[in-house]
Amino acid sequence: MIPSSWWAAAGIALLLVLLLARRPAAAIAGFVARTLIGMAFLWLFRVPGAALGLELGVNPMNGAVLGALGVPGFGLLLLIRWILR
Q1: Quick check: is 79 in a domain?
Q2: 3 in a structural domain
Q3: How many domains does the chain contain in total?
Q4: What's the domain range around 75?
Q5: Where are the alpha helices (DSSP H) in the chain?
Q6: 6, 36, 41, 65: most buried, per Cβ within 10 A?
């Protein structure tokens, strides 16, 4: 069993890491949030996209492209899909 002093030291170390990495952590959290929003958009786009013949997969990679690039990323995904057909 690990003594409680090790848990305290690990907690303090984790707190220091979080304090030092606050800005990068915020940037990563923002990117993850935008990726999830992009995946939700792709999920909502399935039905009208299928009716228009524009089918994009709902996966983390497409969501990450939308999270990083936004609306131009959507155009890029459609262009890549068109080229690969």
Answers
A1: yes
A2: no
A3: 1
A4: 23-84
A5: 4-20, 22-52, 60-69, 71-84
A6: 65
- pLDDT value at position 2? 59
Would you state the structure tokens that stand for residue 59, as one six-digit string? 């996966």
- With tokens 């993850």, the residue in question is 32
- Cα–Cα distance, 14 to 6 (Å, whole number): 12
* Per-residue model confidence (pLDDT) at position 23: 81
Which residue, among 24, 25, 36, 21, has the nearest Cα to 68 in the 3D structure? 36
Residue 31 lies inside a defined structural domain of this protein: yes
Q: Please check the confidence at residue 6 and state whether its pLDDT lies above 70.
A: yes
pTM reported for the whole predicted model: 0.70
Q: Give the confidence band of 22 by pLDDT, cuts at 50, 70, 90.
A: confident
Nearest to 62 by CA among 74, 45, 54, 46: 74
| Cα–Cα distance, 35 to 68 (Å, whole number) | 8
